[in-house]
Structures are given as structure tokens and as C-alpha cells.
Amino acid sequence: MPSFTNPIIPGFYPDPSCIRVGDVFYMANSSFQFFPSIPIHKSKDLINWELIGNAINRPSQISLDQATTKINNASRREIFTGGIYAPTIRYHDGIFYVICTNLTGAPDMPSSTDFHPSNFIITATDLSNPDSYSELIYFDFHGIDPSLFFDKDGKAYVQGSWIHGYNQNPATVIRQAEIDVVTGQLLSEARDIWSGATGKVPEGPHIYHKDGWYYLLIAEGGTHARHKITMARSRSIWGPFESDPANPVLTAEGSSGVVQCVGHGDLVQDQDGQWCCVMLARREYGGSYPLGRETFLTSVEWINGEFPVFKEVEIEQGTGWQVVRKAEGKRSAGVDLKSPASLYLRTPHLENYHQDGNEIVLTATDADFGTPDGTMTFVGRRQTSLDSTASVIIMLSSAGNKDVSYGLTLYKDVFRYAAIQYRTHDSTLALVVQEAGKPRTTMSSYPLQDAVSIRLSIISTVEAYNFVAQICFGSVATTNIALGEVPCSAMSGDDFTGTVYGIFASGDGSTVTFRDLEIESG
User: Omega into 248 within 30° of 0, i.e. cis?
Assistant: First the structure.
């Protein structure tokens, strides 16, 4: 039986939503505190995907300055981040609709305080054209994970996870209202339509109309170990919805496999009538999962008049489809600031970033990795493989006599990062590590005099990240200097994001130069 390899979109791409328009599939994912936001992929076969843009690609569209991060429980490594949550993508009468939530919070908000949700719609007619994406159309809904359903009578409905409060029971409920997608005005009262099969944090709703039934697919149990997909159906869009006797229809709870936390899915039908489901899951190796939640795929059997039956999600997924992933081997890519894959932290000051060929010049600001809101000078790309290397050359003379720290980092959020940084004020190279709930530590420090440049590298394996420097005094490079090792577990946790490789500059406003920034993935 032909098979493909999960995840179909590796790296930090959670909360997938998928549609097919003609013979092309489109996928939207969450992006949380990173800009540009809401990555959009396309595919002809559901297995080989190309990133074509981001629904939020202009700072004028939204402010992410309050996309803060809080530690809910340090001992459980439970870390929640605000920003752009769980988009849904839909297509109707020649227009693409992306509906989503921005969660904001104060930098000093206590762990018991919920983020504040703002919900919006973005429209586009050409997903590969950045200028096609509209400004945001806001609508009034106190919840997350909004979805759109266009009924045959022309009416549009929004469903979402209405928040009572995450310290309450129930914390959420699936609520629905009719909506004007042009203005964002709700055309009916918002009504509860389902509390889920378990009643434990129902979220991520999507509605499908098939064989005279309205099928409701949701996620439950929270997005980590107890995550699951459940379904219900009704003859009316407003319910009552009857739970599938087979619930949960998809979960990894209780399993010991690599694929864990399966949930938050969306159903799509291919050109031949085959149904399938995209969903998030994370890959766990020895209790570590730094890449976070990724996009997985499984096949679905949906007999007329019955609830769908989902195939268990595996890394090597047998489908019976005559499609296989393209063989790629090792992939090496430079970082292009104009690429939709390049990531900035919250709302960036784009005037601080310049590129000429393989050379990137950053303007340092006084913000650093510990700054809880706003932005810092940082640009990077998602880590997509645990067998990967990020490397860059920093030019030491480019900073002059200014007070700047700059270098290469592995970044997850304000509480978790590891950075090789060169400090100009004392000509020192250091490996600085921040783990959640612990003081920031300097693992190693090397004073340097008369160095011209340094090649910095982060080498990832399934077990750990190794940080290496190669120092050039004139035309001759030294041998590699091992700066330290950080276990993958330090970048893992019950969180929302995944690791990002990046370069950064923090200091007094001077410019620094980077050359040959590359990320190689296995």
C-alpha cells in the first residue's frame, strides 16, 4: 500500500484548516506571536505543500504588540502565548475568507487571567498576492477558533469556542450566530449549539452539510495529552446536535506512539470524492517535542447517511492513494527577508532590516529576548526537522565601537531560548540559555581580541542542540569551538508554538552585518 510521511507540513504549523478549490488545496495555520501571520500553503495532492503567502502580511493590518506569553504552570512546562489563533479558511462565490482570533494580554498578567479575544475576517481573491488580502473586518464574539459555514440558502454562520473562563466549568461552549461577512455584523443572537461529547474545553468547530445532515466537528480536552476530535450532527443548523456514538473519533490519548496530542482537525474532499482530515499533532521522542504542534493528515471513510470513520494517525501513513511525497533529501536554504517563510517577533519595525544578496544588515534596538511585548530586532525561520543545522557568519567590525549584542538563536518564546551572542562592549562570545521557570544562565563565555568574523552554528539532533563557533583571525579560521549543549526537553512543553532559528541584534541603535545565513534540514 502506498504511503506518505506525516507530518505533511513539518514544524510549527498548528491548527490546520483546509479547503479545495478546483484541483488545488489551500491550508491556513496559526502563527501566534510571529509576523507575518496566518501562513497559507497550497497543494495539488494534499501531501506536497508550498508556502505561498500569509493572510496578515502588512503591519497596518493588525498590532501584535500585546501577543504576550505567560507561564501557567512551570513544573508542567505549561506555557500559553497570545496572538493569532486557529484560523479557518473557506471559499464562497469567488472569494476566499480567513476568519481568526487575536488574543492579547498585559505583560504582567497573572496566570489565572484569560487573554482578551478579538475576532476578525480577512478576504482575498488571490492567495498568492500579498496585496489581495483585505484589512481586518472585526465582529463581536467573545471566544476563539471561529469558523464560517455558507449554507445553500446564501446565509453565512459563524461558529466558535465561546469563553466562559478557563478557570470555570465549563470553560467553553460551541456557540453560533448568523453573520454578514461583508460588515462583520451578527444577524442573530449567538446561541449555544453543543457542549461537546466530554464537555472538556470544546473548541475548533467546523460544520459540513452532507446527505441532509449538518455535521459538527470539534476538538476537546485541551490541545495537549487529552486532545481529541469529536463529532455530532443535526437536521438543523441550530441543532439539537446528537453526539457520534463512536466519540472520540480521533485521538492519541493513552497511546505510547510518537504521534501525540492529535486534535483540532478539518475535513476536506479530494477530486475523486475521497474524504480526509488534516489535524494538529506533535512528534514526541523521549518526552521531547521542541518543534511543537505540526500539520498531519489521515484518510476518512464517509458512507452516505453515516458518521465518518477516521483512520488512526501515524508517521508512515498508508492510504491506498497513488501519491507519494517527493524525495528531497537534505535541503539547504538561505533566508530571504522577502520570503513568506521569514518570521519577525510580534509587530516588527521593518526599517531595521535590510538585505543585499547573502548579506543581512540589522539595526539594533534596546529590546532583547526578555522584552515581554512589542518587538525586538529578530528575523528567522521555523525549525522543520530535528536533523537540522542553522549557521551564519557575523562580521565583528560592522558594529564599530558601539554597545551591541548580536548573533544566532534558537527561539521559542520569552521564557525559552538559547542564543550565541557576541557582545561588543567586552569583545566576548557567550552562549546564553533561558529555560522556563529558571534564571537565565551563561553556559560558556570566550573573550575574543582581534577576531574578524565568527561562524555561528546550531546543530540539532533528536536529543539535543549543539552550539558551535568557528572564529576567524584574519584569513585563517580556527577549529570549531563547542560552546555547549541544550537538551531538546528544554524547548519542549505544553505550549502553543515551536522552535525558530533566527538572527538578532540588541543594543544602542547601530547596525551589524550577517552573511550566509542558512538553514539545512534533513
Answer: yes
Catalytic residue among 45, 178, 203, 294: 203
Query: Are 139 and 122 spatial neighbours (Cβ–Cβ below 8 Å)?
Result: no
pTM over 0.85: yes
The helix/strand/coil state of 45 is coil
Burial class (CB in 10 A: 0-12, 13-18, 19+), 51: middle
Q: Which helix (H) or strand (E) segment is 207 a member of? A: strand 203-210
Q: How far apart are CA 330 and CA 388, in angstroms?
A: 9
DSSP state of 330: S
CB 397 within 8 A of CB 437: no
Task: Answer yes or no: 15 catalytic.
Answer: yes
Q: pLDDT 10s digit of each residue in the chain, 522 long?
A: 258 999 999 999 999 999 999 999 999 999 999 999 999 999 999 999 999 999 999 999 999 999 999 998 776 778 999 999 999 999 999 999 999 999 999 999 988 899 999 999 999 999 999 999 999 999 999 999 999 999 999 999 999 999 999 989 999 999 999 999 999 999 999 999 999 999 999 999 999 999 999 999 999 999 999 999 999 999 999 999 999 999 999 999 999 999 999 999 999 999 999 999 999 999 999 999 999 999 999 999 999 999 999 999 999 876 554 444 554 555 667 889 999 999 999 999 999 999 999 999 999 999 999 999 999 999 999 999 999 999 999 998 776 678 899 999 999 999 999 999 999 989 999 999 999 999 999 999 999 888 889 999 999 999 999 999 999 887 777 778 999 999 999 999 999 999 999 999 999 889 999 999 999 987
Three-class HEC string of 374-392: CCCEEEEEECCCCCEEEEE
Location of C-alpha cell 527561539: 411
Q: Which domains does the chain have, with CATH numbers?
A: 3-318 (2.115.10.20), 331-521 (2.60.120.200)
List the Cα angle 28/34/35 in 5-degree steps. 80
Cα–Cα distance for residue pair 316/1, rounded to 1 Å = 11
Whether the CB-CB separation of 222 and 229 falls below 8 Å is answered with: no
Q: Which residues contact 70 (CB under 8 A, 6 or more apart)?
A: 79, 80, 105, 109, 110, 111
Identity of the residue numbered 246? A
- Rounded to whole angstroms, the Cα distance separating 447 from 138 reads 53
The C-alpha atoms of residue 212 and residue 260 are separated, in whole angstroms, by 34
316 is catalytic: no
